[in-house]
């Protein structure tokens, strides 16, 4: 198993703070769905057991659309979505790598994901939240 490191992140205003356990070398997904394309979200998908919200539960507001499975969580103060529960991995979290302190990462690989055709390609991400 790959050794995990605790990485810290949060929203722009600092109201939301979290930790995520991930390797120092990661592969993230750059999705082209309508929402991710507009926000520049880079997905680091992890099992729920590797994510901890440290502060800001009361600062979060939820946005859902389409099937309502994905729970898009935004800071109601600054509007940043630093993490959410993805439709592809409802048992995990997708952390926006752009909202994480990058100093602990030694290598980040960005791969394209065709979220615009989610119905055909969504299952390809399922393994990322497996324990």
Task: Characterise the protein shown here.
The radius of gyration is 14 Å and the shape is globular. It has a domain at 33-47 and 57-113: Metal Binding Protein, Guanine Nucleotide Exchange Factor, Chain A, CATH 2.170.150. A hairpin with a 7-residue loop joins strand 7 (71-75) and strand 8 (83-85). The protein has helices spanning 34-39, 118-121, and strands spanning 5-10, 17-22, 25-31, 42-47, 51-55, 60-63, 71-75, 83-85, 92-96, 107-113. The strands form two sheets. Strands 6-7-8-9-4-3-10 form a seven-stranded mixed β-sheet, with no helix packed on it. The chain is mostly beta strands. It has two helices and ten strands.
End-to-end Cα distance: 11 Å
How are strands sequenced across the largest beta sheet?
A: 6-7-8-9-4-3-10
Seen as an oligomer or otherwise, the chain set is single chain
CATH class of the domain at 33-47 and 57-113: Mainly Beta
- Report the uncertain regions: none
Share in β-strands: 35-45%
Named CATH architecture of the domain at 33-47 and 57-113: Beta Complex
Mean pLDDT: 94
- Compute the number of strand runs: 10
Helix run count: 2
Structural class assignment: mainly beta
Radius of gyration: 14 Å
- Choose one word for the global shape: globular
Largest sheet: 7 strands, mixed
Q: Portion of residues in helices?
A: under 10%
The CATH topology of the domain at 33-47 and 57-113 is Metal Binding Protein, Guanine Nucleotide Exchange Factor, Chain A
Helix/strand order, N-terminal first: EEEHEEEEEEEH
């Amino acid at each position: 198993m790959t050794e995990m490191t605790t990485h810290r992140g949060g929203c722009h205003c600092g109201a939301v703070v979290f930790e995520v356990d991930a390797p120092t070398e990661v592969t993230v997904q750059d999705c082209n769905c309508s929402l991710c394309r507009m926000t520049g979200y880079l997905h680091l998908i992890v099992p729920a057991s590797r994510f901890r919200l440290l502060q800001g539960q009361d600062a979060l507001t939820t946005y859902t659309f389409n099937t309502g499975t994905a729970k898009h969580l935004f800071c109601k103060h600054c509007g940043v979505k630093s993490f959410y529960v993805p439709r592809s991995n409802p048992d995990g979290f997708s952390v926006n790598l752009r909202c994480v302190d990058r100093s602990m990462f030694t290598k980040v690989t960005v791969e394209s994901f065709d979220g615009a055709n989610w119905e055909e390609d969504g299952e390809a991400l399922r393994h990322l939240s497996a324990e």
